[in-house]
Structures
1.
Amino acid sequence: MVRLHEGRSATSRTPEAPVLKPIVYFLVMAAAMMTLSMSGVLPGFRVDGFTAALVGAVVLALANALLKPVLFLLTLPITILTLGLFLLVLNALMLWITARVVPGMHLEGALTTLVASLILSLVGMVWNAISKDDGRRHERDRD
């Protein structure tokens, strides 16, 4: 039997967990986009349907995975000078790029883009905190 860190065996992991986690993440982010769009809190942020929101969540994740690291390195001096606050601008830029690529996603204005990216970032942070797997669940299941 192959042993993993913390004394857990490789067979104690459920095969569904790695597959379901990103799917649920995309659904949560799409629901957050739809809620933000339908709530009227940000009139300049509009998503035309759940499909557009779901595609937007996937494209935003791809932009964050592929473009953001490169832009982070290019803007590192500005990020350091602003004590990290420039990362909020990078998040807004990723959302703006997503809205330009995805049909059915509309953003009007820089402030709307910045606030929408802040809200979606908070949703993502909460999701990561809730879905974090630190091994305690596996230990609890064994008992």
Note: The beta strands are 45-47, 105-107.
2.
Amino acid sequence: MAPAPSKKTATGDATEETAAKTTRATKATKTTTAEDTATADKPKRTRKTTAKATTKRKTGGRRKKTEDEFDLELDDVLETPDADEEPEEDEATVAKKEEKKAAEAVAAKGSGFVLTASDDDDAPAQRVVTPGATADPVKDYLKQIGKVSLLNAQQEVDLAMRIEAGLYAEHKLAENPDMDKDLKKAMRWVIHDGKRAKNHLLEANLRLVVSLAKRYTGRGMLFLDLIQEGNLGLIRAVEKFDYSKGFKFSTYATWWIRQAITRAMADQARTIRIPVHMVEVINKLARVQRQMLQDLGREPTPEELGKELDMTPEKVIEVQKYGREPISLHTPLGEDGDSEFGDLIEDSEAVVPADAVSFTLLQEQLHSVLDTLSEREAGVVAMRFGMTDGQPKTLDEIGKVYGVTRERIRQIESKTMSKLRHPSRSQVLRDYLD
């Protein structure tokens, strides 16, 4: 009879079996967890892979842009002259934007009125608020030109070289318009770059024009007009500047700006234009006169000025007359300004009241004397001396009126004049003789 298995052995087997099941379950759980983790990480890896692919495509795009950069930029330059220029908008859009900005500015300040296109035409005019604008145009201009920084000597040379290259490219393009297409594109790009360099050199030296124009204020032209004329001289200086000479641009441009301003003053500042060479003589005489006034302590005589300027005293007096400024007849006089300068100047063509009365009395006396003559004699004398319509008639014209010859009219005139010379008739008219 075989021995019965012990209780301890059965329990151990059960424990081992349970442990094996637990181990298998744990492995299955780990496997499931690993699969889930892999499944969860798969989208992340997919997103990373997609991002890398996108980065590669972008990088490839950038490389492609780098290769075609010159052609694209050149096409943009040829289509749009200024790369910094924003696309133009129609007038209606611009007007709406300006009205909106003005309304926002007013709302921020809490005061003021804004006119819009929808306002009624009969409504009272209101002040238009423009953000950033002031009532002083000079201040606005100075603020605008102050945004461009000044240039050093090397920058001036670089800009001048670009300008020269642009002019040379323009010359070559005009000489050979049938050149290669790519070369023509390059030439046009160089021309455009030269124009940009010219504008940069101009804008950086606008403050030089202002500083020189200040010296000529109060001489018959507005300050802004002087600045504009000086800007024309600055443009001429940019076109003529030779960087190879080694001078600074401001030193060279000063002479062109001064010349433009002085020529404009000679042409525009005076009511009566004086030739430029005479204006130079007038200015020289004025300088010498001021200097001699300081040295002598008194006004110099024409002889002293003529000796200093190598001119005759008569010529000095004549030049001084040319230099006088005309005076307006409407210049107010007195403290109250109730009278004008023109009120004190005699009108040589105006009729003096006493002379008008004397002329009226003379006409009355003449008619009274003519009444003592016959109708034909009075008519012949009146027409002969223009007493009827102010136009003297010839003998032929009077003869046609009366139907007689000119000789007969001459005889009537001679006889009538003899009668008028008689003291009984001429005495009353002698008082009117000068």
Note: The domain at 274-324 is CATH 1.10.10.10 (Arc Repressor Mutant, subunit A).
3.
Amino acid sequence: MEVTTQERDDKRKIEIEENVSSFLQLKRRIGLVGAASFVVGVVIGSGIFVSPKNVLVYSGSIGLCLMIWVGVGLFMLIISLVYAELGTAFHHSGGDYIYIKDAFGGLPAFLVVWAQAMLRTPATRTLKALVFADYVDKVVSSTSCSIPRSIKLMIAVIEILTLAITNMISVRLTTNIQVFFTATKVIALVIIGFGGIVKLAQGSFGELTMGFEGTNEDFTVVLAIYSCFFAYDGWKAINNIAEEIYQPKRNIPLALVLSTLVIMTVYVLANVSYFSVLTKQEFLASWTVAYSWGQKILGSAAIIVPISVLCSIHGSSNGSNFGVSRIMFAASREGQLPELMSYLHVNSLIPTFSIAFSTFISLLMLLPADIEQLINLVGFVTFILVCGTMAANIKFRLTMKEYSPVFKSLLLSMLGWFKCSRILD
């Protein structure tokens, strides 16, 4: 028995050593389907089911609201190509953190990783857990009474802890969960989009006929854009796990482009469907817009919608949890977070301490439990990070001779950066 145990320990030691070159690395275990599912799964979460209300409130009109959804989608498509370029040039996990560190040094990178670890990702996970609890309430209230607020918070806590445990067990399990829930949420949004197309084909245009009536002309439109950023947030998460994707020069660009096109299409179709069915007052009456849509179109079968949304939110949070732990792992490996965050589990080679810390921050953010404030926080931080990475991309092109991505998108980078600057002005 002692010999067998020793042999097993030696084998595990060799396996771990094979993952160490100049520094500790993660294994490449994710292919094209897994990578694309990861992006779609992270992005399509609570955003498309919650953000539409905020986008309409701050834009003021149906026409401008739809323009923002299309415009931000096209903007994200352009930026995704730049991130694809960066992903083929830098094969290490860390995403924005790695790019900004290599371009501008340690201090900006330190601020980035703390913004990611302490603000953006924990806030995103907390927000999704709160929306998850709201949709559980819709499922329960369809058969009995509504759930008290204290019970909703307990549901959110259970959701956050479940995600942490799942991510600590196995990368393969996490990826398989991601693929399954991605398929579920895309089907749900296709149903919503198809319902809207049928309504339009029947000549029922609903609130779409209002056009730009009621458009806000003040700075609140910026908040509408931030809310839309939240809904699209997550598409760049693939760069956070670049170190775990095999054939990254091929799979990262393909996964980013394909997933971004799918996301933009289903988002626009879903919003058109919402407006063709719901009145403006119904749209603004609740955060659970998809459920309101389901009640009018599906009737007694409307319970299918919140169940699908629950799957969507869980899948999105699963991918988000997976990605942020890799950012913290990368920052710790570079010496900008406590060394504990770079520790990998001896059997699964998963950064369990990073997952545990991020989960703890998310639980703390449940205390205020304000959905609107969390949406604005996530949208703002995401926008700043994207601008920083765009600037890094331009600097690499101009100053780094050894910068050699598989394909280049300088024109797209310049256009994206120009648009960022104009919005900030």
Note: Residues 161 and 207 are 40 Å apart (CA to CA).
